[in-house]
Each structure stands twice: as structure tokens, then as C-alpha cells.
Please model this.
Amino acid sequence: MIIKKMRIAVLCLVGIILQPVALVTAQETAVLEGGSADGLKVGIFAIGLDTYWDQFEGLKENLLGYHKTICDGLEGLGAEVVDAGLVDHPSKAAAAASLFRQSEVEMIFLYVSTYALSSTVLPVVRDVGVPVVVLSLQPVAQLDYESFNALGDRGLMTGRWLEHCQACSVPEIASVFNRAGIPYEIVTGFLDDQEAWAEIEEWVQAGRVVHAMRQNRMGVLGHYYQGMLDVYSDMTLLTTTFGTHFELLEMCELKALRDGVEEDRVQAKLEEFQAQFAVSPECEPSELRRAALTSCALDALVAKRELGSMAYYYEGQPGNDYEDIVTSIIAGNTLLTGRNVPVAGECEIKNAHAMKILDLLGAGGSFSEFYLTDFVEDLVFLGHDGPAHFAIAEGPVGLVPLPVFHGKPGKGLSIQMSVQNGPVTLLSVVHNPGGTISLLVAEGESVPGPVLQIGNTNSRYQFPISAKDFVNSWAYAGPAHHCAIGVGHWAEVLRKVGGLLGIDVLIVC
Model:
């Protein structure tokens, strides 16, 4: 499958300062600060034609200098770079491929330093079998034609031109990759081209997300909300697509951990509630304590099972211990979500993946569903009564009592917050007919104004198209009714995530 052509765009980055983990053990801290995308290895090699070196003095040395500039740039983006150097003859291709295989690189950057034979390229990329990004980067944006022509010596001039003829090889490489069925992408520009480097950075960001998703351990606690057919997930398909390892969790394990929580941990958790939330005076001390006990148990469960994300739902018989746990779970799951262990309610496993992807980008990723449409102001409201991403809140994050969880048993504490005003991205992981996974993406704005004060998360969103067209277009794509919302515009990076995973990405705009 060939990665679809992606338009070049400079990413709008929104910095998020996630709250540090507090009041947990050292073991739990190591897990709860998980979700790191560190460890992404990228391969890079330059290509050239060895025939040129004896013909044009200094050409090879200059090209190697440009190659080092690109290697340094990739390292500056946080990638672990495996450099196979200059491959200028088919005989060197096997050594480059062997190095990349042994190093277990997850993507390759191919720097076209000058014209090169495609026979020096194909064996490397074919034998490693990971996505490749072709870098067609000239030394400068424009040749100084007057100085160039003033060189006078045609041999010297030809050598200088060969430093700038990256575009000569790209069609040849693309033709061979197309015929070989090898996924690839092309970045065209020059060495100091901010637009090109923004796109390269997006590829590194996408690679880090894909790498981290392959390492992710997702817990599944309880069962689906009965009758939500759209929510039911194929965990085997999600594993083969993202690499997720699923841990099927037992409520009795969570209860045992809750029963073993010591009093000092409960008091520390209550202090954490006060630090992270605007705790409503209406919250009864017994409800706060109930939520604190469950939150401590959740921390312990996440640490014990080394989880990077979770999906949950349960009901239990009225008055039993499991109902007591599940009706006091939202505060603790919100704390987990805000510190890089996103938790999706209603056992929405697909949406826990979407939340994790956005969280890995530093965008947050809050559990949401469509709430209502404002046809006067052309807005769509989204929110949920389940876990929120407290690190991306606009203003205080309220912890408030709910006399009833709509559609669910019991009562307890809930989160009331809105997502930061400014650019946002909606993401849904879609299970398509025919057994494939795709990503559904939309960019919009979280805008100020009145929201529903019902003890839920909810925010007001505008999109480039009308609210009517947006709701229809989003629904026609066939996602489950939940989605994840993160701050910033991430469509271009998510396109690249889909490209690296070999799955489709549909953007509603």
C-alpha cells in the first residue's frame, strides 16, 4: 500500500504542561509517567554515484557535509539516528540494509544528495521493509547564477550543479518504489527550509506515536455498555493494527487493591483532589473518601499491570462492592488520564486508542461524545460524564456530585470542565466494514460561551464547515459515537501516523 500524497503544512503546535504525578509510589510513578515515545530509531542513508568522485574534486566531501547537517537535524528532533552513510554503489546497499535490520529502525529517511542509480536504493528499502521518507533537499533555495557562471571552468561548474540536482533522482526512485509496491513519501525543499523541516518533524512525531502505540499495554476492565453495538471492538484487529497488548482486568482484583489501601494513602489522595480539582462544597466527605479509595486502587492497578491506557465499564448489583467501586471511579480515572494514562468510559476500547494517540502528541485527548447542536451560533457541543483530561482544561476542573449518572446506575462524583479555548482536533478510531481500521480526524476551535452546568465535561466547538454539514459528514464516516478531543491542530501529523500504520485517514473539513 502506497502512502497517500500529503500536502505540506507547517504544524500549529500548542504547548501543554501536563501535571506531574503526585502522591504515588516510585513504582507507580514510573508507570504513570509512561506513554513516553522515547526509543524511536530512524535510519538514514545518503545516495550518490561513485563515478562522480574522481571526476569532480570536493563533490563527495561537500555532499557528506550536507548529509551530516540532516543527521544533526533529525537528532535535534529527538530521534535516535542510525546512520548508514553514503551508499554510492549497489554493493554497499546490502551493508546498509543489514545495519538497519540489526538496529531495528522503524522508518528510514533517504537523503538524495545528488543523482544516484535506483539500483543503489531499492535493495536497502526493500530488504528492511519499513516506511521510507525521501528527502529531496537542495543545499540552498536558489543557486547564485551569476557567481556560478563566473566560475568559468565547465568541470567545476558541473560539480557544483551536481550538488543541487536532487530532483533528478526523485522520479526514478518513485517509479521503482511504485512498481515494487513500497510505501514512501517525499519531502522537497532545501537544507534550511523551515517548511520542509516542519514536515520532517511531523514524520518524527508520527513515528514516535506509532512506536509508543506498539509498546502500549491497555487494560480492559469490566464489560461493554450493553447494547452499544458501535462500541464493540475487535481487539485482535486493534492489536494487529497498532501493536496494542491488552490486559483483561478483573473487578475483584481492583476490589482487593482497594481493600488494601492504607489510610495515609487515602489522605494523600484527598489532598491531591484539592490540589487538582475545584472541589464543590456540595461534595459529601463520604463521597470524597469513596472516590479517593478507588483512585488509590486504580493507581495500584495501573502500576501492577504496567498499563499505558484503559477502557472500563461495569454496573454490579445495587449495593454491592463492585457498584460501589464503579460509581466512585470518575475522579481517579480523570487523574490517570491527565497524567498520560488515558481512560475511556463505557468500555470504548477504540476511543482509548484515539485518546492515547493524542496524549502521545502532547495534545491531551479527552473522552467525548456529541451533546447538542446550536443552530443559531453554528456550534457543536461535545462532552461526557466520564473521565476528562484535566491537563487541557479551560479554567478550573470542577469535582461535583451527581445525584444520578444518566443511563448508568447509582450516584457519585463527576468532573465538570471545558477544553481550552483555541484550536482543537477530534480523533476517532473507526472499525470499517470489511475488517479494517481507519482514523477519522477534524480540526476546529473550542470557543468561549455558556456551557451546560450538569456535572459533565462539555465545550463549544466551531468547524470550518457548518455545524449541520459537520455532524452529517462525521456521522457518514461511520465512527462510534465517542471521540477524543485534543488541543492544537494535528491533522497533518495524524495523516502521517496513518501512513506509517498503512491505514486510511479521513479528514472532515
